[in-house]
Design brief:
The complex is a heterodimer of chains A (about 375) and B (about 525). Chain A has nine helices and 19 strands. Chain B is about 30% helix and about 20% strand. Classes of the chains: A alpha/beta (about 375), B alpha/beta (about 525). Chain B: This is Oxidase.
């Protein structure tokens, strides 16, 4: 086989592309990964590395997340410790008794769907998180929630896949044959040939779909992360207020913030999460930082005296129904999509990669992929 | 008064060095309300440093033959009516609306509490807070100290970035030993604290600053066994016109050259300190001869006993406040990034101007000239008097600026680091000292994990994520990333630091709500 041809070309060297490459290579396919930027240069590198089930209501995304949680657990044994996998669990806190009642109902439905939950009454919150503010209404612990360092996870997945990785090379065209079937891609460095192309271009997945003559309405939803100076372990879990769940599920373009606070093995505390639809604008928003800081210090008053060292913005790949597109394009034979995971791409990557690999080889899908079918947007075109 | 949310300034100047003061004086004279914000307590910037009060230094000018010119500028500034907001650490500038900018600063009770990015003299002094943080540096959770800093927001119709430059460092084995100081830092210590970094001080690196540092150190009583300059001086000969048009620069060089002769300090070109020896602090250095690409020639190492090393590789413009607003940058001949400016000092973003080292290093006289030009240009824009920019004065200033800029570019080109310097590094040399990231782990990220640029190296190794936010290691990391492989190299980009200084979360939380958000 020549250097320019392989069984499958994955467009995108973020965590989803890396997972697609990893699972495809494990089935024996030869894989080439192309990215116009560096490894993990897009939304992956701007993520916190959340592997969450706690923020998902029962439904297809939760199914995908539960499968991914198991797969990340396996990957943590197969990949180097450098990916910083931590099964530290999540803690969702309710501001008062009223919010606690709503959270209890939400958690009960999740438990029904297979999520492990554990109620923490208000008077025991400080055993779980000693620095939480007083006066909260209680919370729920989610032991399945975990974390990785996303850029390292993507880089190690790619390396373990053995795929040829071509960074700094932008896809300019998708090559098709006489019947419209995919034959490869043309990049800024030349042609690459393969009978399958996987669109794992994340927030830029809409552009790749368009190059192939398909349609995928991916939009950027901006988020900022604040990073503090290194601290001793002040925050043990991934801690967030119950309002976060409502923000994740909302499709509003307006700014929403709900602090998600967590420590990291390297020391800094990460504070997310803001959501707003403002295109690809990276300009610092002081209002976002103000709200994140106010909400984080309301949860953990001790953080008021801690310095934010840096902040960065990322662009979540947002599809109108908040579900990713996973599977074959309805119009272009040989083109598969694996993008649009919004803020959950790190967590959902392994299940996505496994599903794509099964589809490439004609295997049994690991879960019902119907809700993720890229054709669901075709009618609106 | 201007500065209250209801009444903005016409112009906020960031930086009280020669560029900022000249810009403020000029704009105020032309009728604008002006504030100059600076992290330091006194005007003068990095170059015109004042001895710390209490040292009883009666004659700071003794270390500065340019002091009278600065004193004249300072006098005009004090009489100009422009406000001087000392002890203000600007952490971001944002666009408020089409006609207004917000300048966000922290004011500390102890104004020395927040790093301004360039003030640290000790290369070897840990920038603090490094490492994994798991040791907590003895701090308890209740003991975080940053709560006393107060956020301040200024509004301005125009902003002039006169934020200067920081010293560029290139690592080498042993550079983290106590006794290794930045060349600019050594001079700053001398000017502001009147202290010497050691008794026997080797001066090394590249650039004209080395000569000035060596003569200052010798004049203050240190023994300087040698100045090791990594470049040749032949580079200057390739731009004879720029040299001939700047006789004062030749004069300066001659002054320093004479000083070196008087103190019997040998200047060795194409030489570099490639290793530092010592257990608790510097005891000796190895100086090696270099080839044209700055590779050390085998067998040429000489050991020189000393108790300190002052090392510097030129300056890197401080542009992060401007790049955060989208201002375009250009790559300078020595591989740093400077702001792109038009003939009247405006950046690529209308309403934002820059003067001095932010547009490329070039010395204080260039900075003062550019500051005055920018001051006129801002006044012409805000007062809708375009004729102001067509005066003979503007033509003269622009001509002087162009001449000095051409010389400065020729000079930095002559001292640009050669690609071979990365071979000085052992795999276990710390490159990012804040996060303790070695050259070996950076090389591993490049060869094994596919990093091709400084940002990806940072994501994969934490190099540049610590206290100094890559100010110390950024240049070195970019070189190591680029040297990994020619294929797929991503060109280095300008620094992006949306927070120019660390900001306490409590201060962020206490900001007033921004208008325009539902």
């Amino acid at each position: 086989m020549s250097n320019s041809s392989s069984d499958v070309i994955v467009v995108g060297a973020g965590v989803v592309g890396a997972a697609c490459a990893y699972y495809a290579a494990r089935t024996g396919l030869s894989v080439t990964v192309v990215d116009r930027g560096p490894v993990a240069g897009g939304t992956t590198g701007a993520g916190e590395g959340n592997l969450l089930v706690s923020d998902k209501e029962p439904g297809p995304e939760l199914e995908l997340a539960l499968l991914s949680t198991r797969l990340w657990h396996e990957l943590a044994r197969e990949l180097p410790a450098g990916i910083e996998y931590e099964a530290k669990g999540g803690l969702v806190v309710a501001s008062d008794a009223h919010a606690m009642a709503a959270l209890r109902k939400f958690a009960a439905a999740q438990a029904e769907a297979g999520v492990t939950t554990e109620e923490i009454p208000a008077d025991r919150l400080h055993e779980a998180e000693p620095h939480l503010a007083p006066g909260l209404g209680g919370g729920f612990r989610y032991p399945q929630d975990a974390q990785v360092q996303p850029a390292l996870a993507a880089a190690h997945l790619l390396r373990a896949s053995g795929a040829r990785v071509r960074t700094g090379e932008e896809v300019a065209a998708v090559l098709t044959g006489a019947n419209g079937e995919v034959r490869g891609v043309r990049t800024t460095a030349g042609e690459l040939h393969a009978p399958f192309v996987v669109n794992a271009a994340g927030t830029w997945g809409g552009e790749v779909a368009r190059l192939a003559g398909g349609r995928l309405p991916v939009l950027p939803r901006r988020g900022f992360v604040l990073v503090t100076e290194p601290l001793p372990r002040v925050v043990r879990h991934k801690v967030y207020a119950a309002d976060y769940v409502a923000d994740v599920a909302s499709g509003s373009a307006a700014l929403q913030t709900s602090a998600v606070v967590e420590g990291t093995p390297a020391g800094p505390v990460l504070i997310g999460a803001s959501r707003e639809r403002v295109g690809f604008d990276r300009t610092l928003s002081v209002e976002v930082l103000r709200r994140l800081a106010a909400q984080a210090t309301a949860l953990f008053p001790v953080l008021a005296g801690v310095r934010a060292m840096r902040t960065y913005a990322g662009f979540r790949p947002y599809l109108p129904d908040h579900l990713p597109a996973i599977g074959p394009d309805p119009r272009v034979p040989g083109l598969l999509h694996a993008c649009g995971h919004e803020g959950a791409g790190i967590g959902l990557a392994p299940a996505t990669g496994l599903a794509v690999a099964r589809q490439l080889t004609g295997g049994e899908p690991p879960l019902d992929l119907g809700p993720f079918h890229p054709g669901r947007f075709a009618a609106a075109a | 008064m201007p500065g209250s949310p209801s009444e903005p300034y016409d112009l906020v100047v960031i930086g009280a060095g020669p560029a900022g003061l000249a810009g403020a004086v000029t704009a105020a004279r032309l009728g604008l309300s002006v504030a100059v914000v600076d992290a330091a307590a006194q005007t003068g910037g990095q170059y015109f440093r004042h001895p710390a009060p209490g040292l009883g230094a009666a004659r700071p000018q003794a270390l500065h033959h340019d002091w009278p010119a600065f004193a004249e500028l300072r006098g005009r500034f004090e009489a100009s009516g422009a406000a001087h907001l000392a002890g203000h650490h600007v952490w971001a500038v944002t666009r408020q609306d089409e006609e207004m900018w917000s300048v966000h600063a922290l004011v500390g009770e102890d104004s020395g509490a927040v790093g301004s990015g360039t003030g640290s003299a000790e290369v070897s002094g840990s920038p603090s807070g490094g490492g994994t943080g798991s040791d907590g540096e003895g701090r308890t959770h209740e003991g975080f100290s940053a709560e006393r800093e107060r956020p301040v927001r200024l509004q301005a119709r125009a902003v002039l970035f006169a934020t200067g430059a920081g010293e560029r460092h290139l690592p080498f084995p042993g550079w983290t030993l106590p006794g290794v100081v930045g060349a600019g830092g050594a001079q700053a210590m001398l000017k502001s604290g009147l202290v010497l970094p050691g008794q026997r001080v080797v001066v090394a690196g590249s650039g004209p600053l080395l000569l000035a540092v060596a003569s200052s150190l010798a004049a203050a009583g240190a023994h300087v066994p040698e100045v090791a300059e990594a470049s040749g001086y032949l580079g200057y000969a390739r731009r004879p016109r720029a040299l001939a048009a700047n006789p004062h620069k030749l004069l300066e060089a001659a002054v320093h050259g004479t000083a070196l002769l008087r103190h019997r300090i040998p200047l060795r070109t194409r030489s570099a300190v490639t290793a530092v020896h010592g257990t608790d602090r510097v005891e000796a250095v190895t100086v090696s001869r270099l080839d044209r690409d700055w590779r050390a020639l085998p067998g040429t190492g000489r050991r020189i006993a000393c108790d300190a090393l002052a090392v510097g590789h030129g300056l890197a413009p401080q542009t992060e406040l401007a790049t955060g607003l989208g201002c375009a940058t250009r790559r300078t001949p020595d591989g740093t990034h400077a702001l792109v400016l038009d003939g009247l000092q405006e950046t690529s973003v209308p309403g934002l101007w820059a003067a001095g080292e932010t547009g490329g290093t070039g010395g204080w006289q260039l900075a003062r000239t550019e500051g005055e030009l920018a001051g006129i240009a801002v006044a012409a824009r805000l007062r809708a008097l375009p004729a102001l920019t067509r005066s003979r004065r503007v033509r003269d200033l622009a001509r002087r600026r162009d001449r000095m800029r051409a010389f400065a570019e020729a000079m930095v080109a002559a001292h640009a680091p050669g690609p071979g310097w990365t071979a000085w590094l052992d795999d276990d040399t710390d490159v990012c000292r804040c996060e303790e990231v070695t050259a070996g782990s950076i090389r591993d990220a490049v060869t094994a994990l596919g990093a091709r640029d400084a940002r990806t190296v940072k994501l994969l190794t934490r190099a540049g994520m610590g206290w100094c936010q890559g100010r110390m290691c950024g240049a070195a990391v970019a070189c190591l990333a680029a040297s990994g492989t020619a294929q797929g190299t991503v060109p280095p980009s300008a620094d992006r630091r949306p927070l120019a200084v660390p900001v306490p979360l409590g201060a962020l939380a206490a900001l007033p709500e921004e208008p325009g958000h539902a």
